[in-house]
Amino acid sequence: MLDSCQTAEFVRLWTLHGRRLWAYLLALTSNDADADEIYQDVGVTLWEKFDQFTPGTSFEAWARRVALNKVRSFRQLRRHNTVLCSPEFLDAINETIAEDSQTLDAQSKALADCWKKLPAKQQELLERRYQPGATARSVAGQTGRSVKAIYEALRRIHNALFECVHKAILGEGTP
Question: How many distinct structural domains can be found in the chain?
Answer without folding.
Answer: 2
